[in-house]
Amino acid sequence: MCLCLFSSVSSHRKKMMCRILLLLMLTCCVCGTFEVNVSQSFYQAEENQSITLEWTFTPQDDPSLHSLRMLCLMVTDHKVSTLFELMGGVEVPAPEHKQFAGRVHCDKDVLKEGRLRLHVSSLRTEDSGRYVCDMKMKNDAGRGECSLNVTAAAHEPETQRPTGRPGPESRGRPGLYAGLGLVLLAASAGLALCVCDMWF
Q1: End-to-end CA distance of the chain
Q2: Is pLDDT of 160 > 90?
Q3: φ, ψ of residue 30 in degrees (nearest 5)
Q4: Alpha carbon distance 122, 119 (integer Å)
Q5: 20 to 30 A from 44, CA-CA: which of 4, 53, 94, 166?
Q6: 173 dihedral zone (left: phi>0; alpha: psi -120 to 50; beta)
Q7: What single string gives the DSSP state of each residue in 42-76?
Q8: Are 31 and 140 in contact (CB under 8 A)?
Q9: Could you report the per-residue pLDDT of 116-157, keeping only the tens digit for each?
């Protein structure tokens, strides 16, 4: 159906438009007692760190989660990227957008408890944006949304090496020995002058 509506655009855009239509279909009739919430509305992190995004939803009696559908996207002003997708209780492998390939892990053990936890590793500054997760369970649907801001990692300044002539403490024992040698030499010269005065 999507291919027919958008036959004039590229394959990538067709798939993205289909996913957006799926989002609209999932949330067009939010009703019943199914609720989706975010554990935190705003996340802050630095690049190369890891973070856990969490949504909560009304747990269901069906332990198999066959009727559960999820679609989580990162939305910015310039693009829409697939973060995670679950259909019939099974994770859809290899997200379409390569930005998150190999960096997103879902904690499936807590899905039956009504929690969706997505661990995102090796954060990048371009991961900043809105994270929207739409869920549908049988005839009920809901949406949860949060924001993530990833800043560049702070670089610590390098320790500056001391410059200039080292002080007396830095010269150590060789400086001490040289000083004593000069004292002894001066004393010897003074003694020699005294002896000369006595004999001449």
Answers
A1: 126
A2: no
A3: -80, 115
A4: 10
A5: 94
A6: alpha
A7: EEEEETT--EEEEEEE---S-TT-TTEEEEEEEE-
A8: yes
A9: 999 999 999 999 999 999 999 888 889 999 999 999 988 765
**SS3 of residue 100 by DSSP:** helix
Q: What is the β-pairing status of strands 129-137 and 115-120?
A: unpaired
| Span 39-71, pLDDT tens digits | 999 999 999 999 999 999 988 777 778 888 999
Distance of CA 97 to the CA centre of its chain: 18
Other beta carbons within 10 Å of 108 = 14
Return the amino acid letter for 112.
K
Alpha carbon of residue 148 to chain centroid: 10
10 Å CB burial of residue 16 (0-12, 13-18, 19+) is: buried
Backbone angle region of 111, left / alpha / beta, with phi > 0 → left and psi within -120 to 50 → alpha: alpha
Give the CA radius of gyration of the chain. Answer: 36
Token couple for 50: 């890891």
